[in-house]
Amino acid sequence: MPESKGRAKPAYTPPRAASKPVKPNPRWFVPVMLGLMLIGLVWVVTYYISGVKEYPLPQIGRWNLGAGFAFMMAGFLMTTRWR
Questions:
Q1: pLDDT exceeds 80 at position 4
Q2: Are 61 and 54 in contact (CB under 8 A)?
Q3: Which of 4, 16, 59, 62 is 20 to 30 A from 83 (CA-CA)?
Q4: Per-residue DSSP letters for the chain?
Q5: pTM for this model (two decimals)
């Protein structure tokens, strides 16, 4: 029975690096991220401590909680981009 000839295999060539190198964050990124989280925390704590007076913004009432949590969430979302 005849034998089949094997194919010549080409030399290994590594794949190209398709992705761009990861750049570090600007210097202002971490202070802004931490600042947003702290502002949100202080906002919510101030609302709870003030009680009936409803500081920091009396005209928005319970939405002060939403504003405080929005600041905190913005800071936490920035942590996903931190390198």
A1: no
A2: yes
A3: 16
A4: -PPPPPPPPPPP-PPP--SPPPPPPPTTHHHHHHHHHHHHHHHHHHHHHHGGG--S-GGGTTHHHHHHHHHHHHHHHHHTT--
A5: 0.70
